[in-house]
Amino acid sequence: MKIVTLCGVGIGTSAILKVTAERALERLDIEAHVTAADVGSIAKVAADAQVILTSSELVSAIGKTNADVIVIDNVFDVDELTAKLEIAIG
Amino acid sequence: MPFPPLPDDAIFIGAPVADWRAAVTAAGHALERSGATEAGYTERMIGVVDEFGAYIVIAPGLALAHARPGPDVSREGLSVVTLAEPVAFGHPHNDPVGVVIGLAVTTSDEHVHFVAELANVFNNASVIPALQAATDADSIRSLLGASADAATSPREPA
Questions:
Q1: Does residue B54 belong to any structural domain of this protein?
Q2: pTM, two decimal places
Q3: Helix (H, G, I), strand (E, B), or coil: what is residue A7?
Q4: Structural domains of chain A, ranges and CATH numbers in brackets
Q5: What is the mean pLDDT of each run of 10 residues along chain B (158 residues)?
Q6: Out of B54, B60, B110, closest to residue A74 by CB
Q7: CA distance B79 to chain A (A)
Q8: Touching check for B30 and chain A: CB below 8 Å?
Q9: CA–CA separation, B131 vs A56, rounded Å?
Q10: Are B48 and A15 in contact (CB < 8 Å)?
Q11: Element (H, E) at B119
Q12: What share of chain B is helix, strand, coil (3-state, %, to 5)?
């Protein structure tokens, strides 16, 4: 499984979200590769992704995708990510 | 990977700001004072919010002000600004913001910079309110696990 974390410029939020997502996946015992992307690279990076994690502000920047788009409010909250990932892919 | 140094110059406690632009500007000025960035970087951090919206408000009460690496970044840097009165950034869930962290990195390679370490610090939900309540720079450094200077020069007593 491939999961992409998306932020505007690809250096801050997406890197943090990647760490939090990896923790959540560990809790769920799900094997997945988590990649950070920015708005400029999302179409290419997420082409073969099952899940895109991002903030509500950036959903419209994703464009057409077959991936499940999950909106995260608090990028540090492993509980929130675990719950949302479980609904999407569990 | 450890944080860049967080000298007193990079910390502003109780900044009086009227809106999110002033809050991001304060975080940018703190990065400039610490020698990490030049003025252009502060403008670019504001530009990120103008372009993409308030997504930099990454947790309740906390904004991570940042922009892409560029020639206006001299070295990796971190700044912390706490606001005298929290301000709205326009985020649907995480407003109002009382703490702004300024971030500058020299490369976009997620594997070589310290940003992920922030996830470890803020994994503890009590850190944001504790930063907001901090009254001195040493408390803020202690909460983040940062030091005033990574090199040798001793910090002058406050």
A1: yes
A2: 0.91
A3: strand
A4: 2-89 (3.40.50.2300)
A5: 90 98 98 97 97 93 95 96 97 96 87 80 95 97 90 43
A6: B60
A7: 14
A8: no
A9: 25
A10: no
A11: helix B115-122
A12: 35, 20, 40
